[in-house]
Amino acid sequence: MARLAIVGAELNTTSSGVEWTARVASGWPSISSTIKRSGAYSVQINSLVSATPKWVASQYAGGGTGPWFARVYIRPDTLPSAENTIVALNDGPNVTTPIIWVTLDNTGVLRLYDEDGAIGSASSALTTGSFENRIELQTNASGGAGACIVRCLLNGTEFAGSSTRSLSAGTNAIVIGGNLLSEAQTQGEWYFDDLAINNNSGSFQNSYPGAGNVVALRPNTTGDNAAFARGGTDSGANWSQTDEINPNDATDYVSSGTLNHIDDYNCEASPADVDTVNVVAVGVRHTLSSATGSDPLFVTRIKASAGGTVEESATHFVNNTTWYSNSEPTFAANSRLVLYDLPGASTTAWTKSDLDAMQIGVRISTGDADAAWVSTLWALVDYVPSGVSDLTVSKTEAVTLGDTPTVAPLVIPNLSLSDTVSILDTVVMELNIEIAVSDMVAVADVASIGPLILPDLNITDSVAVADAAQIEPLVIDVSVADAISVVDSATVSIPVEGDLNVSVSDAVAVSDAAQVDPLALSLSVSEAVAVGETIAAIVSDPAISVSDAVSVTDTATVSIPVEGELSISVSDAVSVSDVAQVVSSTDLSIEVSYDNFAYWKSGVKIS
Asked: Which domain of life does this protein belong to (predicted)?
């Protein structure tokens, strides 16, 4: 189980052992039906008495070190005159030497403390007159001295926390109220609603509870079964014996000790704004007809529709005639039947239509001559309303290099005008383009397009050089060195939609400069020739003409899939041909060598 306790004040009482574990002996908080966040009720803190704590508490565990994760919403209508303790986590349902606590001051900010002192810094100011102030706490004492964890979040963002605290004990109860540390204050009015406690077990709700509205759905018509007898005042139907808001215990109830007797009840409609269902938990108020002899046992049950798959709780048992909520005087808010998806082995999430067709009930799992009495049955639903949630929105759009990216406006439907909505737009753009063009190309464009990451792009050029020499009979060593400079200019454009375009242009320069001294046996030619030019170098004897014909062809292919990697390939085909003619009146043989042709590309020599 990950969700331990849910308290929405929906049973309309702060009496000990009904929905809350305990409350202060006198001057306890009241229940408000006019100001509430969700459901029908909230806990009101007002009329503070100086140096007198006012509180209610829910104990969610018998002990242990945690981790525990708590959530409660607060609406401050009138701020206190000074720093006031409003929430505490303790090792029992009381405010005696609390282990962790949160304060609210006259500027509306929260602060976090533990036994060793203040932790972190103050929060941002709460919104007064609004319930959209979600306080969440984490406590974990399993690390021991110097390694305990205490953290506090406001609306999902941590404002104070540490993993190096030294707690004297683990916490097992949450206390809400005012003047919890006996502050000498009388000013202040605030409301609490939609409390929840998680641990870290299971696959659901195993960390901070997050956003959630809590509402109680109660029986409203007969379901698939009605085998129990009616006791107390007869309302005329089994479901109406168990539908009261504030449990009336022996006033009216259903009763049975017969093995496999079942009662199932349809429930009232869920709120119109139900969207994501976090948790559905069945609660029950019950006792025994007699404290003597052996006792009957029963389970609570739930199905998503008439005749549907049934899921049942662990056994409920008591051995006296005291009235209990969920078999426990201490853990009154801890349901024994908690669901995160539809009943049975389903992994399908609950929907509003499922909630509206849902049936809840009880079954006698161990029979006895005595009877189990069930006074009240309800289903607590923790849900996120449509249009209002914690949103982290990531939008990915194609952009053109050099342009400033823009993101289309985010449209969120079904916003309730009565709610304060916090929307965080996070634009993720993580496209890095590195283009290495081997013909001395400088490309310094960095584009951001997420979540597509482009690899490094390499361009491979192939160079073909063909030299043909025609010579008269003259023995001359001719060495021709071509200096070829090829510069690629690459332009990359990325439209919002469509294909990415890459154009590459080459500027190629080849220069030949040839001079031959008639007495020399070798000729060194240094070329600087523009593309397409023909240069003739005339020497006195012999005469040599050198011409270069250079052509460069670039081919760029770009493929952009819908998802995946972007690939760009560019190839250069460069051909250089040298023709040397030597003319002499003397019968000589000539030897032409083309030595050490080197083509440098991005720091790599290609010969």
From this structure: Bacteria
- The closest of 139, 44, 25, 141 to 88, measured between CA atoms, is 139
Domains parsed from the chain with CATH numbers: 3-211 (2.60.120.200), 215-385 (2.60.120), 459-606 (no CATH)
Give the model's confidence band at 558: pLDDT under 50 very low, under 70 low, under 90 confident, else very high. Answer: very low
Distance in angstroms (rounded) separating the CA atoms of residues 280 and 270: 12
Q: Are strands 189-199 and 68-78 parallel, antiparallel or unpaired?
A: antiparallel
The single residue listed with the structure tokens 């941002």 is: 124
DSSP collapsed to 3 states, 140-160: ECCCCCCCEEEEEEECCEEEE
pLDDT digits (tens, 9 = 90+) for 218-273: 999 999 999 999 999 999 999 999 999 999 999 999 999 999 999 999 999 999 99
Cα–Cα distance for residue pair 445/512, rounded to 1 Å: 36
Say which range, 297-311, 319-333, 396-410, 467-481, has the weakest mean pLDDT. Answer: 467-481
Residue 7: predicted pLDDT? 97
* Ramachandran bin of 210, using left for φ above 0, alpha for ψ from -120 to 50, beta for the remaining angles: left
Give residue for tokens 């107390």: 232
